[in-house]
Task: inverse folding
């Protein structure tokens, strides 16, 4: 049990305040803003998963768009079938497909879709992890492989228009479990579900990091060979954490589709995949709060800038990115310790060992 | 303490960017932040505040589609300026609210939702790709908004909340195939980019060829942005078609036509008809490689109507002499005028009233007389087949004489039965 130092109490108060703010947000913001916030929270969930592998294990994946997208597609298939009443959805008709393909049929069940939205990304990550980590493929080579996977997946989704909706993606939903997806009440409930998911996954990630498993992950990040010499098999740890991270991205994808009402191959391409890494970098790699905050801040900024300057918003995004990287190398979350560190330097005081556990 | 200065500068910069963004939002002529200021049923008056009517303009201003869509924005802004100069609509000024769709379909959906529910615009002019329209469609239907979509597309759609001012298949593709069968030969080779429009268009063409005695000798799709057509050109050579029906989009057209010329095939040896190559694309691809090739549209810069004369003149005066007008640009311009006319007729900007008033509305567009078809919310358009001339303009070879009634589901064609949706 950790001691309740004043610092820890402040952090706990911070968490409680954030949770309270998130839960009471529907009382203060318009339906449109709430919908946007819900989308940002879904992105924050991906960022948590990404931070787990990049920030804590040192595996850089530029392919998280796929896991996010696969989750989203699973949910979208269910929504599409619910909208068409089990008949082949509209795009199959205009692509010349008359019958519902076999692999679409089980997606008529909501729970099957949810299970698949988690299982398919996880399985794909497990397979990719198995072939790469076991063969000690890592660093840049692993990153390149994830990019290749992105290209394969998007090409497949675009090329198989009759089965996937092609470039258009899947859109035009009506209900989820019988509730109209457009109604403000449903949107509010979906928002709460997203908040609960975000908090749940945050706690889960905290738990992983604090556990013995999490310590091994950090050890792998800092010196994979040393971990191996001690007698651990890093490949297994990497595989497991990569799979968990993919499953989290899948959950985020499902929530994204429910809020945004469309998923298309452009959402899981190379650019969004890199963007996800940027959120983590800007928020603060290696801190969960930072990753989530980065995703929310960056997307909020994107939304605001593009509204204020439809022609030049990309320059502002670029400027913001450069400024953060140059002045806050540890991201927004690192700002706190940066300030504290400088304060400390100015008034040198005796301090004990900060981290006796390591 | 140089370092501290450095960090303070950084923080200042971040703060400045954020403040700038905030200011931008407030300075924009159209943004009224709180609906509490004017509680009088803001929702169903649809964007009409005191003395002004807000309309949304939602095209891609960044990303791959920006190059095409920015010209449409120009045309729509010009129409708005013209209408405002002539006294506005219902005596009120039209105030455009611009948003960037960023060539990204979910962004189109998000921005559409923002325009309707936050800005409370009376209508939105926007979209280019079919994908962007499909992404916005559920949003407009859910919130009962109004969208004017200015680009030719693959048909098989008719949303109660969208007006389509571009051509559907029976106003561009179907008549052009009939014309080619009559005048250029029976053997068709279908070439397209790999996405929804070409695939659906070719589905229609294949049925039509079967019914009208044509022969399909090849069908190929290349990814968007594909640039190596040497193998494909060999395949086309081997298949010896009379006509290559081209639904390629974007950069691929540059590569395809250049390599076709390099392979020694000119328009004299092989007829090609494109449906996505207009005046603007000719400028990009180069007249030398395109001269003599065909296109099917409803409007060319050379279209001879009095309305077009002033339209082209004004457009060049406003945006520069080197600019050209083209079909989607004209359709965007027409959309604004049709909406304004419908609002005048309805005496209100309320969506349902505007829709009712728009039925069978006529207007002398640059492309000729157009009329809104009440049942499908598409417009009657004249079909025109043109040939690229040495000056980068089209010479009209054929037109349908009168404006063709839109038939997005091709119900008037027996051979199209298998394409129509089952319901």
Result:
């Amino acid at each position: 049990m950790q001691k309740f130092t004043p610092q820890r109490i402040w952090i706990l108060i911070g968490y409680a305040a954030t949770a309270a703010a998130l839960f009471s947000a529907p009382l203060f913001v318009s339906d449109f803003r709430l919908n946007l916030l819900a989308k940002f929270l879904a992105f924050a969930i991906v960022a948590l998963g990404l931070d787990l592998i990049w920030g804590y294990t040192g595996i850089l994946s530029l392919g998280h768009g796929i896991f996010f997208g696969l989750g989203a597609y699973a949910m979208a298939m269910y929504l599409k079938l619910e909208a068409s009443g089990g008949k082949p959805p509209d795009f199959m008709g205009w692509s010349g497909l008359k019958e519902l393909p076999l692999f679409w049929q089980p997606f008529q069940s909501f729970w099957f879709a949810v299970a698949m939205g988690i299982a398919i990304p996880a399985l794909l990550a497990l397979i990719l992890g198995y072939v790469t980590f076991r063969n000690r493929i890592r660093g840049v080579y692993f990153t390149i492989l994830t990019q290749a996977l992105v290209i394969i997946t998007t090409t497949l989704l675009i090329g198989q228009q009759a089965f996937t909706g092609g470039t258009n993606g899947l859109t035009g939903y009506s209900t989820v479990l019988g509730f109209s997806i457009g109604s403000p009440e449903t949107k509010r409930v979906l928002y709460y579900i997203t908040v609960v998911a975000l908090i749940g996954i945050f706690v889960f990630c905290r738990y992983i990091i604090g556990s013995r498993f999490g310590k091994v992950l950090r050890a792998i990040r800092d010196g994979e060979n040393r971990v191996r010499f001690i007698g651990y098999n890093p490949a297994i740890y990497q595989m497991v954490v990569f799979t968990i991270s993919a499953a989290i991205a899948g959950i985020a994808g499902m929530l994204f589709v429910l809020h945004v009402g469309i998923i298309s191959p452009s959402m899981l391409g190379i650019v969004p995949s890199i963007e996800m890494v940027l959120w983590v970098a800007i928020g603060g790699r290696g801190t969960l709060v930072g990753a989530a905050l980065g995703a929310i801040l960056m997307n909020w900024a994107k939304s605001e800038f593009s509204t204020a300057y439809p022609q030049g918003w990309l320059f502002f995004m670029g400027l913001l990115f450069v400024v953060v990287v140059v002045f806050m190398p540890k991201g927004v979350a690192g700002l706190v310790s940066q300030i504290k560190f400088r304060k400390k330097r100015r008034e040198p005081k005796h301090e004990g060992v900060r981290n006796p556990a390591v | 303490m140089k370092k501290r200065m450095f960090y303070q500068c950084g923080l200042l910069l971040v703060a400045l960017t954020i403040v700038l963004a905030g200011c931008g939002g407030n300075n924009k002529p159209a943004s009224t932040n709180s609906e509490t200021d004017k509680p009088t049923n803001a929702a169903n008056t649809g964007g009409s505040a005191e003395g002004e009517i807000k309309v949304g303009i939602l095209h891609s201003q960044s990303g791959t589609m920006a190059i095409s869509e920015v010209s449409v924005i120009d045309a729509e802004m010009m129409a708005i300026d013209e209408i405002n100069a002539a006294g506005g609509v219902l005596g009120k000024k039209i105030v455009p609210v611009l948003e960037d769709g960023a060539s990204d379909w979910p962004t189109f959906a998000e921005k559409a939702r923002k325009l309707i529910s936050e800005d409370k615009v009376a209508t939105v002019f926007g979209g280019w790709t079919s994908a962007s329209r499909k992404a916005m469609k559920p949003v407009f239907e859910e919130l009962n908004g109004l969208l004017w979509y200015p680009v030719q597309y693959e048909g098989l759609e008719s949303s109660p909340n969208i007006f389509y001012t571009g051509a559907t298949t029976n106003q561009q593709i179907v008549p052009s195939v009939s014309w080619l069968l009559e005048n250029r030969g029976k053997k068709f080779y279908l070439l397209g980019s790999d996405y929804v429009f070409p695939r659906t268009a070719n589905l229609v063409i294949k049925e039509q060829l079967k019914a009208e005695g044509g022969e399909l000798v090849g069908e190929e799709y290349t990814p968007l942005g594909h640039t190596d057509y040497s193998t494909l050109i060999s395949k086309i050579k081997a298949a010896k078609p009379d006509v290559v029906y081209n639904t390629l989009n974007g950069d691929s057209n540059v590569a395809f036509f250049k390599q076709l010329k390099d392979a020694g095939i000119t328009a004299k040896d092989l007829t090609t008809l494109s449906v996505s190559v207009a005046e603007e694309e000719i400028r990009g691809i180069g007249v030398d490689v395109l001269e003599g090739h065909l296109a099917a549209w409803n409007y060319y810069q050379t279209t001879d109507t009095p309305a077009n004369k002033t339209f082209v003149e004004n457009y060049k005066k406003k945006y520069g002499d080197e600019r050209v007008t083209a079909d989607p640009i004209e359709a965007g311009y027409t959309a604004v005028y049709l909406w304004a006319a419908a609002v005048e007729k309805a005496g209100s900007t309320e969506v349902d009233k505007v829709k009712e008033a728009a039925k069978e509305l006529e207007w002398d567009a640059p492309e000729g007389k157009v009329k809104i078809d009440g049942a499908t919310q598409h417009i009657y358009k004249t079909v025109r087949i043109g040939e690229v001339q040495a000056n980068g303009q089209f010479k009209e070879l054929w037109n349908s004489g009168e404006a063709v009634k839109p038939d997005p589901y091709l119900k008037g064609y027996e051979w199209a039965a298998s394409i129509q949706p089952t319901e």
Notes: Residues 30-269 of chain A form one domain. Residues 349-358 of chain A have pLDDT under 50 and may be disordered.
